[in-house]
Amino acid sequence: MQTILFHSTIFGPIHSRRLGTSLGVNLSPADGKICSFDCLYCEAGFNAQGPGEAGLPPREEVARLLEEKLKEMHQEGRSLDVITFSGNGEPTLHPDFPAILYDTLELRSRYFPQAKVSVLSNSTRADRPDVAAALMRADNNIVKLDSAITGTIRLLDRPNSPAFTAEKVIADLEKFRGTGIVQTMMLRGSFEGKRIDNTTPEEVSALIEAYRRIAPREIMLYSIDRPTPARELEKIPAEELHGIGAYIQKETGIPVQVN
Q: Which of 31, 61, 70, 224: disulfide with 52, CB 3.0–4.6 Å?
């Protein structure tokens, strides 16, 4: 069953609970999903639905469509807080991602210089120098770390690479020290008979050590907000999530935003 969220390259603007009024950039196909993770909670569904037939949008088309939308919004006097790379999969998998990001920064400066450019990435391509350099140019380089324990992160995020480990991704994210934003999805539940819970004292302690190593400028904690492809997942209650966030902030000295 196809459950992809976005059927266009440029979508919105929409209201993001973390970023404000956001114009989205989808670098995945408009009729399918391409991702290096197959997360149990992904709002775009599992990768099994396939990549579709449209293919990845060319760099020139992304720039053209984005400029058209920004020009229209500017002429109408509308506001914009952020341009966000998100969509139906992992944006950094696009072979022209660095160039597309630089195009976006230029167009942002031309039409909405006060707006931020954000990239929501799953951290799997942070080991590539060209991708890492591009991410460091974004105003909000938001990278994913759902667990600092390999068994849990592999169960929850289901990476395509058998070599993916928590230790490797933490080491890759250390290059963004002081600049990146780490985003962590907190949840409990089960999948195919295996229990998942990244809110336990062991999990939180491991995350705290990882956050200290990565030293992001901010941590974003959030939980499930929409239906998930894995049905037996539980949203963490707001009071509990805020408690975890307060504890992490106390232990790391890093600001924690809870959504």
A: 31
Q: Which candidate, 190, 187, 186, places its Cα nearest to that of 232?
A: 190
CB atoms within 10 A of CB 115: 21
Helix (H) or strand (E) holding 175: none
- Please state, in angstroms and rounded to a whole number, the distance separating the CA atoms of residues 102 and 110: 13
**Residue 156 zone, left/alpha/beta (φ > 0; ψ -120 to 50; rest):** alpha
For residue 233, give both structure tokens.
């997942």
Q: What is the pLDDT of residues 158-200, one digit of tens each?
A: 999 999 999 999 999 999 999 999 999 999 999 999 999 999 9
In order, the DSSP letters of 43-57 are TT--GGG---SS-PP
CB atoms inside a 10 Å sphere around CB 253: 10
Q: How confident is the model at residue 7 (pLDDT cuts 50, 70, 90)?
A: confident
Q: Report the distance separating Cα 196 and Cα 188, nearest Å.
A: 5
- Exposed, middle or buried by CB within 10 Å (0-12, 13-18, 19+), for 250? exposed
Tokens coding 121: 């990435």
pLDDT (0 to 100) of residue 15: 80
* Integer Cα distance of 246 and 167 in angstroms: 25
Cα-Cα-Cα-Cα dihedral sign, residues 15, 21, 27, 29:
positive
pLDDT in tens, 219-257: 999 999 888 999 999 999 999 999 999 999 999 999 999
What is the residue type of 22?
S
In the predicted model, what is the mean pLDDT of residues 134-138?
97
> Can you tell me the distance from the alpha carbon of 13 to that of 38, in angstroms, rounded to the nearest whole number?
26
Beta-bridge partner residues of 118 = 84, 140
**Residue owning tokens 């999990």:** 203
